[in-house]
Design a protein that fits this description.
The protein is α+β, with helices and mostly antiparallel strands and 334 residues long. Helices cover 54% and strands 10% of the residues. It is built from 16 helices and seven strands. It has a five-stranded mixed sheet with strand order 3-4-7-5-6, covered by helices on one side. It has a two-stranded antiparallel sheet with strand order 1-2. Strand 5, helix 8 and strand 6 form a beta-alpha-beta unit. Helix 4 packs parallel to helix 7 and helix 14 packs across helix 15. The chain is elongated and about 75 Å long. The protein starts with 5 loop residues before the first strand and ends with a helix. The relative contact order is 0.10.
């Protein structure tokens, strides 16, 4: 997985559409940010690429792009998270879902809800050492404070907002719509509300829809967490099939219950590829078989699908810095 996490592709897709509406070349921007967007609804993008997109967005649309984009963002870009939170019976349940399912939007960021006496605080922290772009923070504040308030029967403004960036990066647009004192250089984004907001009802509360959306969100969250170990699962499956010459894309995808296209996409989301995973699997098998000593170098080369021992020799040198023959001589147990 990306070192800094992954982001649901609906966000960068919507941001590119917004920049295109402003007269920018969204294809050129996507290429500059090295973003390839799949059409799948559950596709994800490495956070590094989304960070690059935000940097470009600020250059072409100004530092207030996060606020302006949030105010014009069409509904539906938060996927099932949007449905499960807006159909909840109360703000307390809704905010609990926001925290539980936030990883569906950005799995490198944690959102927590804490109640202390007469106040309740939503706190967002990134797991990475890389801070979120100020424009991204601004988008989050507007989504949680301004847009979120539209779904509440009797919304209450926040008491204060702590922002994890310096005041020099602040934009007047956020201060104008936040309806709360802002502070800067915080350790994390924190939005503090009066605790009575938790008791408020939601305008779109819908128990049957909420139950269905919650079940779907739970399934998506489980899949996302299971995907965290996807490269090693593919590597294990590849090792089992390389020796029988059956480590094709279709076979490996089928063994994991995925389509070939989905497997390729999810590996890209993890910052790797099937070719790279197969290379790791061949390396592991080669080292294991040579150390066992039961096969000679030529047999191991053909076992792994190399048509010539010279090609295997070059690959093994790249993997280990030594030749297959030297490795076998040093490590063979037979």
């Amino acid at each position: 997985m990306s070192e800094h996490g992954t982001v649901l592709a609906t966000l960068p897709r919507a941001l590119l559409a917004y920049l295109r509406a402003l007269g920018n070349d969204d294809d050129a921007i996507a290429r500059a940010a090295e973003i390839t967007l799949e059409s799948d609804a559950d596709a994800r993008v490495p956070r590094e690429r989304v960070d690059a997109l935000w940097e470009i967005a600020v250059r072409v649309a100004g530092p207030a792009v996060g606020v302006r984009f949030a105010l014009e963002m069409p509904p539906g870009n938060a996927g099932v998270l949007e449905v499960v939170t807006q159909s909840a019976p109360s703000v307390e349940v809704s905010l609990g879902h926001v925290c539980r399912y936030w990883h569906l939007l950005n799995d490198g960021v944690d959102l927590a809800l804490e109640r202390v006496r007469s106040e309740v605080a939503l706190t967002l922290r990134t797991r990475s050492t890389r801070p979120l772009a100020p424009a991204w923070i601004d988008l989050t504040v507007v989504a949680l404070v301004v847009i979120g308030a539209r779904s509440i029967v009797r919304p209450l403004p926040p008491k204060r907002v702590a922002l994890p960036y310096p005041e020099s990066r602040a934009v007047p647009e956020l201060a104008a719509i936040a309806s709360a004192p802002l502070s800067y250089d915080a350790d994390a984004l924190a939005i503090v509300f009066p605790a009575e907001i938790l008791e408020q009802s939601l305008l779109a509360a819908n128990a049957p829809l909420h139950d269905v959306a919650r079940a779907h969100a739970d399934a998506e969250l489980a899949r996302l967490r299971d995907d965290g170990d996807l490269p090693s699962r593919v590597r294990t499956a590849a090792e089992a099939r390389l020796e029988s010459g059956d480590a094709t894309l279709d076979r490996l995808a089928g063994a994991l219950g995925l389509s070939a296209r989905t497997l390729q996409r999810r590996l890209r989301e993890h910052g790797t590829s099937l070719r790279a995973v197969l290379d790791e699997a061949r390396r592991a098998i080669a080292m294991r078989e040579l150390a066992r000593g039961a096969r000679n170098v030529t047999d191991v080369a053909f076992l792994l699908g190399f048509s010539e021992t010279s090609a295997f020799d070059r690959a093994f040198r790249r993997w280990t810095g030594t030749t297959p023959a030297a490795y076998r001589k040093k490590h063979a147990t037979l």
